[in-house]
Amino acid sequence: MKKIVLMLLLIVPMIGKAQNPNDIVDRITMIQFIVDNPNGQLVYRQTKNWCVDFLSFTDNQQDVMDKLFNAQYIDIAVAYKAYAEDHSPVALASLIDVTVKQEFYFRRLLTPTQLDNYRAKFIEASEAPDDAKNKALLALFFSDEVLTQYSTKE
User: Fold this and answer.
1) Which of 19, 43, 105, 122 has a CA positioned 20 to 30 A from the CA of residue 51?
2) Helix 132-140 and helix 112-127: axis angle, to 10°?
3) pLDDT in tens, 72-83
4) Three-state DSSP class for 31?
5) Are 6 and 89 in contact (CB under 8 A)?
6) Cβ atoms 91, 83 nearer than 8 A
């Protein structure tokens, strides 16, 4: 009986976070691909920059984004490796929490116009999700809808 209660306590955090199983699988697959790469930090930064190149960052913004993406890689790698070790619901919830926080940090650095363009890009990407760039955008960043789902479920 204690094992069942413990298992339920571990699963509940994941249920609230994982609204769309394909979304979770896509995110974890992308993160795994990047973290398992010997040049993971470089790949992470370049892929994130590639996904959002339509935002036309200023030179100053680009420098800030590069620093942000490099710092984010360290956090995502630690969270992913913890999840990869045991695949527990708690580790999955922690990994999702890290990605949600990263999204909020990223959005704070955008101008209002860039944020509007960013939001519009998710509509385009969701209409053509098989395009490689759209797939990467949807796996590494959050639409408003998905961000709301993940950030309000505790």
Assistant:
1) 19
2) 120
3) 999 999 999 999
4) helix
5) no
6) yes
